[in-house]
Amino acid sequence: MERPGAALYLVATPIGNREDITLRALRVLQEVDWVAAEDTRHSGQLLSHFQISARLISYHEHNASRRIPQILKYLAAGQSVALISDAGTPALSDPGQELVRACIQAGIPVIPVPGPVAAVAALTASGLPTDRFVFEGFLPLKPRQRQARLQQLAQEERTIVLYEAPHRLQRTLQDLLVHCGPQRQIVLARELTKWHESFWRGSLAAALEHCLAQPPRGEFTLVLEGRPCSEKAEELSPSEAEVRQELARLLAKGLSRSAASRQLAQRLQGSPLWTRRRLYQLSLQLEPLPSGDPDDEAESLG
Predict the structure, then answer these.
(1) Among 193, 228, 263, where does a domain finish?
(2) Sheet arrangement for strand 56-58
(3) Is residue 3 part of a domain?
(4) Which domain holds residue 270?
(5) Cα separation of 77 and 89, whole Å?
(6) Residues ≥6 apart with Cβ < 8 Å to 291
(7) Residue 280 CA neighbour count, 13 Å, CB half
(8) Is position 24 within any domain?
(9) pTM of this prediction?
(10) Looking at the domain assignment, is residue 263 inside a domain?
């Protein structure tokens, strides 16, 4: 097979278990002219394990602006470069996306070499819906930006995947609980593909208790349930005080409790919380009609 041409190869590397590396990834890493790595010492150990000799160059968030012109120069000279992160797929939650954009603007081919992704691994094993999901990565640390993002996520209907470090996990769970409520379901995927891989599943309230009782260790991927339909129904439904007021108004017009409940139930068809039966039971708590209605006392919605 021919050696890789002048292109940027996005090579996914294991997120823990080295057996997850692909044959294609091994070949590309062996044949490219340069390997741009987030941590050259960490990646050097990985390459050494597979007996790959490669010229390594560091590329991370602190030197990206300086390294991009240098890497573009190699590529313009006809050399090939593989970009790898410390674990998983590069350009996801790391500065690799800046290098990708620079290569595209320069007309240099960008070739993905797919493989392990912690977000996908956690999602597929979470038990939460996988047909529609969003990848959020790490939440912002600055208070104002974090608050705005959490408010957005609280309204998100799709399953949400986040990354979090162990020392920030408790704070993140507290913030999610405040914005999403204690009953929202979450999965804590820990140390994926590694020896101590584990999955914890339950509500946000229970997850916070779990982390308080057992201090978190290792890297976490969080899979959060999207906003349930029941929450939307409750928000769109009128309050009990509003329903009482409307029932009283209908009764004051001379409608029987049965007729008032039936009419209001028809108007609130979009709200599963206010059934005809529930409305009638509520009407019994209101002041009886001045004229009285013999049908009311015998009314049954069963």
Answers:
(1) 228
(2) 56-58, 34-37, 81-84, 8-11, 110-113
(3) no
(4) 237-298
(5) 26
(6) 254
(7) 18
(8) yes
(9) 0.74
(10) yes
